[in-house]
Amino acid sequence: MPAFDNLYSKKVMEYFRHPRNMGEMKDADGTGTSGSPVCGDVLRLFIKVGQKGQEEFIKEAKFQTLGCGAAIASSSILTTMIKGKSLKEAKKITQKEIIKNLGGLPPAKLHCSLLASQALEKAIKDYENKKT
Amino acid sequence: MKKVYFDHAATSFVDPEVLKAMLPFFKDSFGNPSEAHFLGQEAKKAIEKSRQTLAKFFQAKSDEIIFTSSATESINLVHKGLIEALEERRKPHVITSQIEHKAVLNTCQHLENLGLAEVTYLPVDKFGLVNLEDLKKTITPQTRLVSIMYVNNEVGTIQPLKEIGRFLKKINKGRKKKIFFHTDATQAMAYLDCRVDYLNVDLLSFTGHKIHAPKGIGALYIRKGTKLVRQQDGGRQEFNLRAGTENVPYIVGLAKAISLIDRQKNGEKVKKLTKNLTDQLLKVPGVSLTGHPLSRAPHIVSLVIENVESESMLLLLSDRGIAVSAMSACSSDLLKPSHVLEAMQIPKNLLNNALRFSLGKNNTEEEINYVVKNFKEVVSYLRKLAPKL
User: Which value does ipTM take for this structure?
Assistant: First the structure.
């Protein structure tokens, strides 16, 4: 059981207070949006894809989020998790891993990390669709 | 770090004078009021003196006041105890509103689940006001209890209690079975007229910790002739309506807090502060007031903020030493948006964007300016962080 500093773990608060890679990416290769304002959270993930030998990898990642602390922290940490990863590896990132990297989330907030992994899935799909 | 407390509708600090009044009853006058010896009688006397203070405040009689642990307990006792005392063959009907505190809503639900009562939950308009005409239409021969809060805790709207009370009093003259009138006056105590004959209420619940008494003490006014079956069995304390050894120091503290209420002085002060706060916050684009623009309690400023999720807002304000309350789905355990804002038909995309500032007698103009400055900064930061929709 992770220790929570009040509502959130220290890691969540750190990523919430100092989000990495926030902002819009104008020339993104792939964009994925999950959630809706009605449910309270909207996550948008931007990726830029590069080539390393035979493999495609995520060169740049940025995010924009309208949402609670957990939603902002989940999207922020996700960008750091996927940067430099091959698309193949990035596709394997699950909600569980995001939660683990955040040092846990309160039960009521687990769905926020799901929104993050969904946005990633959509962003990669968007890239692949554009390519073909 | 500067600390600004704008969450008095959630709870308030214990007034030093209240604490001072309580202390002797922990150590010196610690007797059990049910005992005949001098220490017991000292405690007993303190309770009865406190009861008189409350009676005077409500312009009621001493034996119409009982002490409980909270407004929630008072509310449970009223709804369950009244229905149980009716002993009717046909199912009694209760009328309440959709924007009541969970203590009322869940107690009513409990009665419905057990098949003990039928409950009508009155809608409200977009300002959070119950309509007397709606109430009139729902009254049946079986209606025995109307339960409407005085001031809504989330948006501050003042309900037309006086009109409802007057109407019920009028129709009760022609009815075989009286309709009892209850109000949860928790948010009204410090600022509005709570005399029971002015409001024409038969039952009134409130808690102490919103008016600078400690948490864990509340009271209930019960008009003479209103029968309740107690919900906590045991000894014969509190006119046989609430068993358990009395919480003497807290009772004394509650009475002290009541005696310190100065509506004129603090009401005017808080009203001026919240007006300034409201005017400044509403200048920020995409910010609008929830609740009634005029018929509202002076201490509550409730807002919805476009494109800003309220939990993030709360956390970032908290980082800057500002304590306010968020009404978003995300900040509740159930992930359900506020039932009050839903009943007021606030647009769905704003249900997670609600913030409440509630002020108290010790807040200052300087604090208002500090909060406004930080509010603007945090709003523009979070809007920058949000995707364009």
Answer: 0.92
